[in-house]
Design a protein that fits this description.
Number of helices: 10
Largest sheet: 6 strands, mixed
Strand order of the largest sheet: 3-2-1-9-10-19
Radius of gyration: 21 Å
Structural class: alpha+beta
Strand content: 25-35%
Number of strands: 19
Shape: flat
Helix content: 25-40%
């Protein structure tokens, strides 16, 4: 780039739960997708990790906002402030002036044109001179290391925070896909509701997230791989007194079952839409899981057993979309599916 470079190339995985930015082939920003704002002035108080620490603990003068819901922008102003703030976190040594940005941004494949335009506008207002959009399942496939341009079928299931993106890919395009708004946030809501109903325990989203990450499971019988029980603290919903309860992974598997069944249904629909020749490829190649939801204990085994196709968890599934978005950034002239906005 150098001292007089006027353009900076970045790739952005703009996720409901986390935002990652890739610059020069490296992930340089990895922060929760949240901002803290002054209620009266609208001034940005904190972003990312600092804002996440404030969630559920703010005075009345400050509110925390998650600008994205179900994988798309729900609060335009907060999203613009967040993207601009995240970009400022990129190490920018050696620049005399702030460079214009050429950006590749991941977006759910099921996003509407209005939702795509909102991402484009936020990116441009944050400094983007050229903005390209890439469907998240395509980015995930690239990040996993699949050759998406071969005349061969590959299937990716990316379970993010707001959406699960399911796609069968061949010859550089999506042949069959489903985008379902059941993903990590829905799992968290299931856990909140279960703890409230079953244990009379009121907990916040951060605690439910911790439960999900620690003992979240897709199967009620994990055998030797079973995580140990977790002690959860909160307040009694009747007396408001503090209480602690032990929670097992079997309980969490039970409370997540309905949401996981919805995912299975969406995957089956995508498989039904897959041409026979590509279906044969999937039987041979298996199906790849990516995203934070792929880390649920026993999820790959559950899907494999139910659908009689091997499901595999990608290496470092949380960053698969980010890695793939970075690969797309380095191949703008090669990949025709990238949409210039």
């Amino acid at each position: 780039m150098g001292l007089f470079s006027l353009t900076q190339d970045i790739a952005v995985d703009l996720g409901t739960a986390n935002t990652l930015i890739i610059h020069k082939g490296k992930i340089v920003v990895d922060q929760p997708s949240i901002v803290a704002m002054d209620v009266l002035t609208g001034k940005l108080e904190a972003i990312g990790r600092e804002a996440a620490m404030m969630e559920g603990r703010t005075p009345k003068s400050i509110r925390t906002v998650r600008p994205l819901r179900d994988g798309v922008i729900a609060d335009f102003q907060a999203a613009e402030m967040m993207v601009r703030g995240m970009i400022k976190l990129i190490p920018n040594k050696g620049h005399i002036i702030t460079p214009a940005l050429r950006m590749v941004v991941g977006i759910p494949s099921g996003a509407t044109e209005v939702e795509r335009r909102a991402v484009r506008d936020s990116s441009e207002h944050a400094g983007g001179r050229e903005v390209y959009l890439i469907d998240e399942p395509m980015a995930a496939a690239l990040g996993i290391g699949l050759d998406i341009e071969k005349p061969e079928g590959n299937m990716v299931v990316d379970i993010g925070g707001g959406t699960t993106e399911i796609a069968v890919i061949s010859l550089g395009g999506i042949v069959a896909d489903r985008s379902i708004r059941v993903a990590g946030n829905e799992f968290t809501a299931d856990i909140l509701d279960y703890m409230f109903r079953q244990h009379n325990l009121k907990i916040g989203e951060p605690t439910a997230e911790k439960i999900k990450k620690t003992i979240g499971a897709a199967l009620p019988d994990m055998g030797e791989d079973a995580p140990e029980n977790m002690i959860v603290s909160g307040s009694n919903r009747v007396t408001s007194l503090p209480m602690e309860v032990p929670v097992s992974y079997q309980e969490i598997a039970h409370c997540l079952d309905k949401s996981l069944a919805k995912l299975e249904g969406a995957i089956m629909q995508a498989l039904e839409d897959t041409p026979p020749e590509l279906f044969a490829d999937l039987m041979r190649n298996g199906v790849w899981l990516s995203g934070g939801g792929a880390q649920l204990h026993g999820l790959a085994k559950r899907f494999s057993d139910r659908m009689q196709i091997e499901f595999k968890v990608a290496e470092d599934p949380l960053r698969a979309v980010a890695r793939g978005t970075g690969i797309a950034l380095n191949n703008l002239d090669r990949f025709k599916f990238l949409r210039r906005q």
